[in-house]
Amino acid sequence: MTGREEVPIRVRGLNHWFGVGEAAKQALYDIDLEIGRGTLTVLMGASGSGKTTLLTLIGCLRHVQDGNIQLLGRELAGAEEAELVRMRQRVGFIFQAHNLHDSLTAMQNCRMGLEVHGPAAMRFWQEACAELLTLLGLGERLDYLPGNLSGGQKQRVAVARALIGNPDIVFADEPTAALDRETGLQVVRMLKALGQARGTTTLMVTHDTRIMDLADRILTLEDGRLVGDEWTVTP
After folding, report:
1. What is the reported pTM?
2. From residue 187, how far is each of 58, 105, 195 by CA, in Å?
C-alpha cells in the first residue's frame, strides 16, 4: 500500500504499563501492527491479555506511553488533548456496556453520535437516526427509553449511535455479547458491508466464535504480546 491514509491504523513498538514505579505492571509488549482500510479485523485472546488496552490506545481513549500509533495518518504519541478530541470525531465506539443515557429515547441516544460533528450534521438527524434504528430492527421502539428496552435492544441503539456519524474507523469491544445469534450476525454483517461500501475500518475485540467467518483478519494477543495474525481473505 502507498499513502498514509490508506493504512488507517499503524502501530510501531507499542508498550504500555499500569501503575508507576516498582508497582508498574506491563500490559503490552512491543506491538507492531498495520490494519488496512475497509477491513474487519477481530482481536482475540484470554481475559487480561491486553485486548481492550490495545483497543483503547488506538482509539484515543488512553495516552500513548511508549511507541507510536498513527491513526488516519496522525501521530497519537505526544498529541495534545485537542488533537485527540478531533481524532475521536472520526471514529465510532461500540462497547459491551451500552452506556446509554437513561433519560433519553433511542432516537435521542442515537443523535448523540452526530452532535460532535456540529450543526450541519444535525440538520436531518431525525430521518437519519430513524432509518438506521429501523435497519437494526428498532423501528417500533424509536421513542422508547432504555429502561423499556431489552439488553439486546439497548446494544443495538449503542451500535446505531456509533455508526450514525459515518466514522472512518469503528472500535468495538465485545459488541455482540448481549445479542442473540441472529442479531449479533446482523450487526457484524453491517460493519463488514460498511467496509466494502464506504471503506470503514473495524477493529473488534470479541470471544464470539459465531462471527469468525465474517472477519477478514484475526489477531491473537497473549500476555500482552501479539502471537497470531491470520488472514481469512487474501489481503
Report:
1. 0.89
2. 22, 20, 13
Contact 36, 7 (CB under 8 A): yes
CB burial of residue 214 (10 Å; 0-12, 13-18, 19+):
middle
The answer to whether 8 touches 37, Cβ cutoff 8 Å, is yes
Q: What does the block give as the cell for 156?
A: 443495538
Rounded Cα gap, residues 75 and 56, in angstroms: 15
Give the per-residue pLDDT at 112. Answer: 92
Instruction: Quick: pLDDT tens for 34-51.
Output: 999 999 999 999 999 999
| Three-state DSSP state, 93 | strand
Judge whether residue 85 has pLDDT over 90: no
Cα 7 from Cα 23, distance rounded (Å):
36
- Closest of 90, 62, 89, 93 to residue 77, by C-alpha: 62
112 CB-near residues (< 8 Å, 6+ apart): 101, 104, 161
CA distances to 51, 73, 102, 104 from 15, in Å: 13, 20, 37, 39
Amino acid at 59: G
- Check if the beta carbon of residue 10 is closer than 8 Å to that of residue 70: yes
Cell of 199: 471503506
| End-to-end Cα separation, the chain, in angstroms | 11
The pLDDT tens digits for 211-225 are 888 999 999 999 999
Single-letter code of the amino acid located at 118:
G
Separation in Å, CA 30 to CA 22, 66, 67, 195: 20, 9, 8, 28
